[in-house]
Amino acid sequence: MEREVVNPWTWQDARGFVQANVVTGAEKIVFVAGQVSVDGDGNPLHAGDMRGQVAKTLDNLEEVLRGAGLGLGDVVRLTYYVTDLAAFGEARPVLAERLRSAGCRPAATLLHISGLAMPELMIEIEATAAA
Predict the structure, then answer these.
(1) Pick from 48, 126, 124, 128: nearest CA to 90
(2) Which of 22, 35, 106, 112 could be 78's S-S partner, Cβ–Cβ 3.0 to 4.6 Å?
(3) Are 76 and 128 contacting, i.e. CB atoms less than 8 angstroms apart?
(4) How many CB atoms are located within 10 Å of the residue 121 CB?
(5) What's the CA gap between 109 and 131, in Å, rounded?
(6) Do the bridges between strand 75-82 and strand 29-35 make them parallel or antiparallel, or are there none, so unpaired?
(7) Structure pTM?
(8) What is the C-alpha to C-alpha distance for residues 82 and 6, in angstroms, rounded to an integer?
(9) DSSP for 63-84?
(10) Which positions ≥6 away from 54 have C-beta within 8 Å?
(11) Which three-class secondary structure string do you get for 24-48?
(12) How many CB atoms lie within 10 A of CB 130?
């Protein structure tokens, strides 16, 4: 598989994402449902704590990817749904470090929404991975 980053500009580099990933020759593409900060029984964790929710959401995303035989470094697209932009901004270093350390440079979209499936949840992350 080959991946080509398309960045007509440079401003997104400081934010840790790319404008597009062109993937050719992939043998596997995985579309991951929105992951949230819940335990193995689906109970919400880290109410009111965006940093904690970001970390747990990424843990859950990585677990799903492992189950598909992939890792965070294989992610080519992320969509973030957040209920609190300011809290997300403060928690962004947690996200950026996890993505950076995995070699993940996704095409990404951030959406500010009024709520998620459970009122305690502050972030949901959808992913597409390819290998």
Answers:
(1) 48
(2) 106
(3) yes
(4) 22
(5) 21
(6) unpaired
(7) 0.94
(8) 26
(9) HHHHHTT--GGGEEEEEEEES-
(10) 37, 88, 91, 94, 95, 123
(11) ECCCCEEEEEEECCECCCCCECCCC
(12) 19
**pLDDT > 90 in the chain, percent:** 97
| 65/30 Cα distance (integer angstroms) | 8
CA gap 92, 110 in Å, rounded: 12
> In terms of residue numbers, what domain contains 53?
2-130
Q: Are 131 and 74 in contact (CB under 8 A)?
A: yes
Average pLDDT, the chain: 97
Strands 75-82 and 107-112: parallel
**Contact by Cβ (8 Å): 84, 111:** no
Count how many domains the chain has. Answer: 1
Q: Which two tokens stand for residue 114?
A: 């009024």
How confident is the model over 89-108, as a mean pLDDT?
97
Strand pairing report for 123-130 and 29-35: antiparallel
| Buried/exposed 64-93: b ≥16 CB within 10 Å, e otherwise | ebeeeebebebbbbbbbbbbeeebbeebbe
Residue 89 sits in a domain whose CATH number is 3.30.1330.40
